[in-house]
Every structure is written in C-alpha cells, then in structure tokens.
Amino acid sequence: MILSADIGGTKTNVALFAAQGKGLRKVAGETYASRDHGSLDEIIDRFLAIHDGRVSRACFGVAGPVKQGRSETTNLPWVVDAARLARKLGLKRVGLLNDMEATAWGIAALKPRDIEIINRGNADPKGNGAVIAAGTGLGEAGLQWNGVEHLPFASEGGHSDFAPRNELEVELLEFLRQQFGRVSYERVVSGPGLHNIYRFFRDIKKAEEPAWLGEELSEGDASAVISRVALEGRAAICEQAMDQFVQIYGAESGNLALKMMATSGVYLGGGIAPKIAERIKRGDFLEAFASKGRLRPLMEQIPVRIILNDGAALLGAARWALREGPTGWRLPRGHSAVRNRGVAARTGRMRAGGGRAGRKRGRG
Description:
Blueprint lengths: L1 E6 L3 E10 L2 E11 L6 H11 L6 E6 L7 E3 L6 E3 H8 L5 E4 H8 L8 E5 L9 E6 L3 E8 L4 E5 L12 H14 L10 H13 L7 H9 L2 H11 L3 H25 L4 E5 L2 H4 L1 H4 L3 H7 L5 H5 L3 E4 L4 H13 L16 H7 L8 H5 L4
Parallel strand pairs: 1-4, 4-7, 9-12, 12-13
Antiparallel strand pairs: 1-2, 2-3, 5-6, 8-13, 9-10, 10-11
Helix pairs in contact: 3-13, 5-7, 5-8, 6-7, 7-8, 8-11
C-alpha cells in the first residue's frame, strides 16, 4: 500500500494506491484546503484516520525546492521533512519530490483521455521533455533522455526573471517592479499573476472595470473571477488580461523548451491550463511559444500537450515510491510501475519504467 500526496499552496491531495500486477490501483483519495491546516503531518493524520491501511511506502510531491529530503514550501508556511514523516509512518524511507518532478513521473501513466494535444509537432521519442504548470505558482521540470528512458528532474525555473517581449510587457514589468522589486515569471504566469495583469490593465492602461465586476472581485477569488468572466466574454478588461496571460505563458513555455531541448514534447500541467484549454488553442499561445527567431522551425516541431488529469502528481509520486522502494530497491526486469503503450504510440511521448536503466539507476 503506497501513500502519496500532492502538496500545493491552495490544496493538498492525498491518496492510497495498491500495487496491482505491473501497475497501480487507486484505493482512496481526499482533497484538503492547504491553508486550513498547520502542516502536512496534520493532513496525513486526518487522512489515515478515515482510510485505514498498512502503508508500506510513501512519496510526496511538494510545491517548492527540495534539498536533502526537506522543503520549506514557497506558498505555504510549512516545513516538510522526509525523515520526520518516515518516523511518523514507521517507514525506513519516505520520498519527497518537487511537485513538478512528481507530475513528470506521472506522465507515462496517463491515458489518452488525460491528454489534449495543442501542437502535434514531430516528436523525437529520444529527445528530452519538459513540464510547466501554472496554478498558485509556476512550476517547471525536465525529463532527461538517458539513452534508455526518460528520468524526471526538478527545477525552480518559474522563479527566473520575467523577460518582456514588447513595449506593453515592459510597462507591465515596471508596474510590477514598483510593488515587488524583482519580478519573476511566477508573478505573471500563475493565478495571482493573472490578477496582477488585470490590475495593470485597470490601473495603468485605464481599461474600464464595470461596477458588478469590481464587486465580484472583492467577494471571491479574484483570479478565478477574471478567468471565468474572460471565458464567458462578459468584460473586455478580463479578456485583455487573459489574452496577455496566455501569450506570456506560451512565451515562457517556449523558453523552457529551448533550455531543456524538449524535442519529445512540452506538457502543460497545473490547474489553470485545462480550464482555459479552448483559449490556449486559439493560436496566441503557440505563436508566442514558437516565436524564437532563427529557431522557430525547431519550435514548430515540438509537441505541446495539456495534462487534463489533475491527479498526475499523485500518480507520479506513487510510481516513484513503487519504483524506488523503501531502501532504493529497483523493479525487476520487464516491470514498470504504470505503462500505457497506447498513448505513447499515439502521442509520441516518453516512456518510463523498468528495463536496464530502471534496475541500475533512477531519480534516487
């Protein structure tokens, strides 16, 4: 029985998986509002009080940098410590991954219905891959082709410097610099980032904010309101903000593809992309993605896909735990944690799992 969790600034998903043949079967799952709890330990206690099961392995994905099995979460006042959690659960070892690394581990387990293709491109199955996810923050990760399989690795690329591409974005940068000093991509490409862009159009570009919209923004989640109103076409200022958000999201996704040389594909994860998939497919996203000067022909060949399954990080953490085992044990020859050859064949995406590299090395 494997315990996994996906820890985000807004919500924490927890699940139990059972190893079943060559795959995993989800036994139970719950979602908790992260800020309503003082720690991950508290959430795990609540979860296991409801779902009784003998946990033999555990791995958690956390939104923040992980160093030596410990993470001080970026958007929560939590410290997540793998050694402490292992003692709590009575295990020799608990895995702790960056949440985007966990998502990357989950990609090979996704089914065709879990993926929406934005740009089919011409995938190189032996090329690197990348994952970028806008939500409460902006997460980024890579998948390195090691000659046999793709191995995920974490990054904190979402905190790199925001690079404006035109005069409007220079103005946006200056607007945000006055408030935050340094401006990262996360200040723009995230839920709070969408609100920041909205405020720029309202306060600097003097776009009209209808009275009813101002009331809705003050009463609820501002980013969710802006997104919903934009998709419904009810207010020009929200549509402007969404258009700009999508373009910058595309540009940074392209930046990540270049840095990773992600010729096997770029995956858009997180909570925002599936909700605005129709808007992403209009073209502005891909134009910004591909607009890299002399490397445009390369960019146009890179597949871009949206992850529709919000449990990818949970599944990825469970896959990691099954693969690594309590003390670094490797899976036997021919065994993979979860594999779906059908979707790999249809999308040209990377595979992960057993085989020679699975026995000799891994993320660890």
